[in-house]
Amino acid sequence: MNLTLDYITEMRPQDILMPVAAGLCCKPGGFHIDPVRPVERAVITHGHSDHARPGHGAVLATQETLDMMRLRYGDHFAGRTQAIRYGEPIKLGDVTIKFHPAGHVLGSAQIAVSCKDTCIVASGDYKDAPDPTCAPFELVPCDVFITEATFGLPVFRHGDASDEIRKLLASVALFPERAHLVGAYSLGKAQRVIALIRKAGYDAPIYLHGAMEKITRYYESRGVALGDLRRVKGMKKADLAGTITLAPPSATSDIWTRRFPDPVTAFASGWMRVRARARQRGVELPLVISDHADWDGLTATIDATGAGEVWVTHGQEDALVHWCTAKGLTARPLDLVGYGDEDEADAVPANEDAEA
Amino acid sequence: MNRFAELLDRLAYEPGRNNKLRLITSYFREVEDPDRGYALAALTGALSFKHAKPGLIRDLITDRTDPVLFALSYDYVGDLSETVALMWPKTAIDREVSLLGHPSPRPSPTRGEGAALSSARPPRKKSKAVMAPLSQESAATLLSIPSPLVGEGWGEGYREHSGHDHQRRHNNPPPPTLTDVVTTLRTLGKTELPKQLTRWLDELDETGRWALLKLVTGAMRIGISARLAKTAAAELGDKDPHEIELMWPGLAPPYLDLFAWLEGRAEKPVNLDPAPFRPVMLAHAIENTDFAGLDAGDFIAEWKWDGIRVQAVSGRDERGDRLVRLYSRSGEDITKSFPDLLSALHLPGAIDGELLVVRDGRVQSFNVLQQRLNRKVVSPKLIKDYPIHLRAYDLLGEGNKDLRGLPFTERRKLLEAFVTELDDPRIDLSPTIAFDSWDALTAARKNPADAGAGEDAEAVEGVMLKRRDAPYLPGRPKGQWWKWKRDPHIIDAVLMYAQRGHGKRSSYYSDYTFGVWTTGEDGEQLVPVGKAYFGFTDEELLQIDRFVRRNTTEKFGPVRHVVHEPDQGLVLEVAFEGLQRSPRHKSGVAMRFPRVNRLRWDKPPREADRLETLERMLKADQAIEA
Question: What average pLDDT does chain A have?
Fold first, then answer.
């Protein structure tokens, strides 16, 4: 332990973690969590492109997150890398960090940062709902809980994802001459949707947009069974009748869809809970399947961590801060910029062979 | 109710007519009586009960949620019914937990390291709390966790959504059926409504609540016509939808006899309605090439009046009381909008005709007639200022006789006699046009004023051709009736914005906002005057789509801003039927039935039409109204 800190018995949470332009900065540990700009040492929660960016000096993350960054950005995405297992304590400067499953996507983690007697959990993106493609969310008791608020309004309550899959399969049965096109973020959501479709007993081939292939094959290599997957490229239009294809959301309203017979456009996202959002995107079959915690999940989790102080970031901060305050918790919004749905901002991959 | 809600939900997103039909028919097939009957009634607008006011719904939600959270949510969602449906607290216990700040029961921490820790955790401290020291044991457990995907129990969060939900449903009363909702609402007193709504909202799921609120506030708006719903029912029994139209006025929800017949379990229901609707006969648009195969001598010509096609039916019920009904061409009962016409229809019979406004013996334009449409209250002033008139085209029945099998010439004779006998200034006969060759008719169409229409010529939309020997057939039978519309107004406008279409067109920019030139504060500028989304061929659609993609200057959500400079842009030749003043449009004018007539790749935008041209047309139209 650093001698200079030995005489300080109590640290304020903001001395441990502080929002700066590059992201959440841990001064006593000498690193940033999910930095949006290149930094010397980055600790990364999960592989989505708004959290995991290339160009850092050193990256500490789970093996899965490192693998995904390598798949997306190439071998030289960082100067050095170090893999960390869930639950393995690592000392960085004056703090000890530990990764715990966040239940968001494969390899996603919450990062518990402990310094002296204070424990802060930066949860990254998380969900407490079941997901057959990643380790379940783990509740980590702490003093300060940093929560996302993507779906931080009480209108966002995501039901059972398997009910939504049932809706999709009923539509496939009702329209056997049409193709079903499911927009899903290519990292995590797509694989979860496929796994749920398989769980529902559908065993016909499922087709993939080229931009999803690499990540999906990676999931398979990590032991996630996804059944018969095929590339949609090169398929005859008529042969796609009655089939299901997964594609990045941006592709489902693109010229690319012209290869499908009278496609039914579905979109798997927590946003689909709100009709106007679905309509804006021209979605005909909204599927409320989210990889973020819903309102009930956020509030239950905050409550269960036992944290007395809550920092709220990316999303609907106001409502969640209001809820915390009403419960007598200290809460404040964290002004972090640069986080959102990863495929939302991405341009349409011009070439289907491109990795999104 | 939940199954019906699912149907509404799906229909609300589905743009294609045939796909809507499939969804509704499959609902009728899966769902039993009487629920499906009430669903049919809901879709055809045949349900009647007092609607709940939005204020009541708002009170219900503000009573049980945090007002700040409600305000933030409403602001985000933008629709009251939907906001309430989505944020309605699940159960009495949950409600207090999530919204009023009472302590919540702990989620069952049965899995994972954190769960074990949480139960061992000391009570909450305000900030700066002391982290419970890890025991040797649990630290060891942590280190032994290999990969996230190995081991049992993965795939389940500590909070099991589904299990929780099932339990809740198990312990609570089952959600109401559509039948429960409809039959209860019919008899429910106003003071009991809030309590009953609350009970249902507690019992239904999100979609169910949304559908319930849409139903009770009377704001369904899901783009389903009564005709479409009836067609879907007909498909259940592979019947002709006209048959359902015919018997419809004699049927009542939940239509047990109708479904029994459709499923082959009973005889066809008999329509005992004394003033039934009869499916309307429609015409095909004639093309220049059609005339070659047609003999002028086989046809009678009439003016096509620009009003509202109606069927005016008068009959006597079993007590001998007179019953008069006006139907739109789709069979919708519009009697209430025109009480001033009813007394003129004093003889039993069914007239096919056109509703017009006639002032001082002159037929007014469609714009004037529009003042009489969609009015909640038909005031004496409205009746006086916009006197309604029926111009008779055809006679479908007289007394108990069905005349539809007779040739048109014979029906026409009977119609002439019938109108004479009615002897009322509010009803007259549609005059025929004398012609002996197609050339003569061409001349008449070109100049209706000189061909008999006189001062009413501006209310003439074109010419109708009816085969002398044609029976009155439902639908649009081939070769019997033809419509030959006047040439539309044409302007050259510049494409300004484009939006993607729906369904099959969802990847194409197929909705176009176009504008014309005007002199504004910044000099010459384009002002939007209308929107068109048809008229072009599939090939032209591809061309415009390509143009839009290559010439987008900005994007606003789904809308693309397309280049429109004096020397750069695409000129569309737009055809339309008429113009109207409109305060809702920036240009102050609104077009009727605009469509893309032709693409003018050859024309630079600078040479497109000006707003003044439209204003001149508008003045010409208004001169007729005055």
Answer: 90
Q: Phi/psi at B255 (nearest 5 deg)?
A: 55, 40
pLDDT in tens, A305-344: 999 999 999 888 899 999 999 999 999 998 766 676 554 4
Amino acid of residue B298 = D
What domains are there in chain B, each with its CATH number? 2-96+170-227 (1.10.3260.10), 284-485 (3.30.470.30), 489-625 (2.40.50.140)
> What are the structure tokens assigned to A184, written together?
């899903």
Copy the structure tokens of residue B308.
């509202």
* Residue B78 Ramachandran class (φ > 0 left, ψ -120 to 50 alpha, else beta): left
| Residue spans of chain B under pLDDT 70 | 91-172, 502-504, 506, 557, 620-626
Cα–Cα distance, A331 to B473 (Å, whole number) = 73
- Residue B242 has a pLDDT of 82
Give the end-to-end CA distance of chain B in Å, rounded to a whole number.
52
Chain A CB contacts of B127 below 8 Å: 13, 143-144, 308-309, 330
The answer to whether A17 and A120 are in contact (CB under 8 A) is yes
Q: CA–CA separation, B397 vs B520, rounded Å? A: 59
Residues of B in contact with A258 (CB under 8 A): 507
Would you state the pLDDT for residue B616? 86
Domain boundaries, chain A: 3-155+292-345, 161-287
Provide the pairing of β-strand A244-247 with A180-183: parallel
The ipTM (two decimal places) reads 0.89
Right CATH for A3-155+292-345 from 3.40.50.720, 3.40.50.11740, 3.60.15.10, 3.30.230.70 = 3.60.15.10
Amino acid B125 reads K
Q: Which residues contact A218 (CB under 8 A, 6 or more apart)?
A: A67, A68, A71
Question: A110 to chain B: nearest residue by CA?
Answer: B114
Torsion of CA A279, A284, A285, A291, to 10 degrees: -40
Over range A39-68, report the average pLDDT: 96
Nearest CA-CA distance, residue B556 and chain A, Å: 11
